[in-house]
Amino acid sequence: MTQFDSIRLTSLSSKGGCGCKIGPSELSEVIRMLPPASPNPDLLVGLDTSDDAGVYKLTDDLAIVQTLDFFTPIVDDPYSFGQVAAANAISDIYAMGGKPLTALNIVAFPIATLEKKILAEILRGAADKLQEAGATLVGGHSIDDKEPKFGLAVTGTVHPDKVRTNAGAKPGDTLMLTKPIGVGILTSSLKKGLLSEDEITNVTNVMTTLNKTAAETMEPFNVHACTDVTGFGLLGHASEMAKGSKTGIRILKNEVPILDRVRELAEQGIIPGGTKNNFAHLEGAVTFPETMDQIDQWILCDAVTSGGLLISVAGEEAQELLNALQSAGVLARIIGEVFAEQPGHVVVE
Questions:
Q1: pLDDT at position 56 over 70
Q2: What are phi and psi of 164, to 5 degrees?
Q3: Predicted confidence band at 17 (pLDDT cuts at 50, 70, 90)?
Q4: Contact (CB, 8 A) for 106 and 141
Q5: Per-residue pLDDT at 35
Q6: Containing H/E element for 312?
Q7: Which pLDDT does position 21 carry in this prediction?
Q8: Nearest in space to 315 (alpha carbons), one of 292, 333, 298, 338
Q9: Backbone angles phi, psi at 190, to 5 degrees
Q10: CA 158 from centre of chain
Q11: 237 and 179 in contact (C-beta within 8 Å)?
């Protein structure tokens, strides 16, 4: 890593370095204003189920997976920021069962006020992460902007019969999560100077870890649905899976992996706006235990950047997949199950 002590990238973000998406409620309102897209039999995955990426069939044996993601800095180290942004964007391809192929950089940068080598480090971080994923950078676009923003548009490939969506979960499935949550609370705490160097390194490592190993490990298993946990939080993405699959989902709160100090920092009031928006959006869609306090409810809704995969796998294969993931070094945990009752609803226990 290359630190630039003269600048804190997160301090340049008007969004507080959160990197959060537009809230799900606001985004839904905007999409409802648009005319419906013309039917296309080759569009295998579009806007209908709020999935991670679009999938378009080219031939009987080949489809492309397309996604785009960018945000303001959530860490101060430029190289790490580039890595986080790349890992976050590539993750959508893995969630759909695809293999990343090419990428385009998307850059907004105050070129007259920040050192050019800062931008160079951001791009270097992204390039190294693309190389790790086996994807090729083919270009990009940049604008001069007072607020730095960076991300990528990524294209991947998948067999049309092997696309994994967030809408295929089946009753009896077991739910797994491959990374801990709490990233939003920790990165907001980072901006306020509340994290130690070790804690910054730990949360950065979580965000820069590709979901490649998890995706490749689950490939031979009977996975019915998959999504990556990002800006809408664990419960937000679980809710989308429940609605798209027309099933109920049960999340076991005590089994959900949470990063160190998240609860402590949340109790100090470090709750990102995106996290609170996620919680508000889920009103009526999630049932919490009466004994669960507001802090724990917020944590389960925390807005994540470059989170893990939420996997819905056939129950009889769950333990074997868990063992395989953990043997491959993935921090996977079983966190719940899919059931037939209460379709579209999430129950936290």
A1: yes
A2: -110, 125
A3: very low
A4: yes
A5: 82
A6: strand 309-313
A7: 63
A8: 338
A9: -60, -45
A10: 20
A11: no
The SS3 call for residue 63 is strand
For the chain, what is the radius of gyration of the CA atoms? 19
Residue 113 CA to residue 108 CA, distance in Å, equals 13
Give the sheet arrangement for strand 174-177, strand by strand: 223-228, 309-313, 174-177, 333-339, 248-251, 346-348, 286-287
Q: How far is the first Cα of the chain from the last one, in angstroms, to the nearest whole number?
A: 41
Reading the block at residue 155, the tokens are: 């294209």
Residue 15 has what pLDDT? 47
Q: For tokens 């664990």, name the residue.
A: 234
Token pair in block for residue 181: 């949550």
**pTM of structure:** 0.92
DSSP string, 6-59: T--GGGG-TTTT--PPSPHHHHHHHHHTSPPPPP-TTEEE-TTTT-SSEEEEEE
Question: Are 251 and 310 spatial neighbours (Cβ–Cβ below 8 Å)?
Answer: no
Residue written as token pair 């991947």: 156
Cβ count within 10 A of residue 255: 14
173, 337 Cβ separation under 8 angstroms: yes
- For this structure, is 301 an active site residue? no
Nearest C-alpha neighbor of 251 from the set 335, 338, 344: 335
Taking Cα atoms as reference points, which of 105, 91, 96, 41 lies closest to residue 65? 96
pLDDT of 6 above 60: no
CA-based torsion, 341, 342, 343, 346: positive or negative:
negative
| Cα distances (Å, whole numbers) of residue 44 to 58, 96, 156 | 10, 11, 14
Q: What is the pLDDT of residue 23?
A: 67
Residue 2, pLDDT above cutoff 70: no
Kindly list the structural domains of the chain, giving each domain's residue range(s) and its CATH number in brackets, ordered by start: 9-30+39-162 (3.30.1330.10), 174-348 (3.90.650.10)
Q: Which of 18, 20, 226, 301 is catalytic?
A: 18
Q: Is the pLDDT of residue 342 over 80?
A: yes
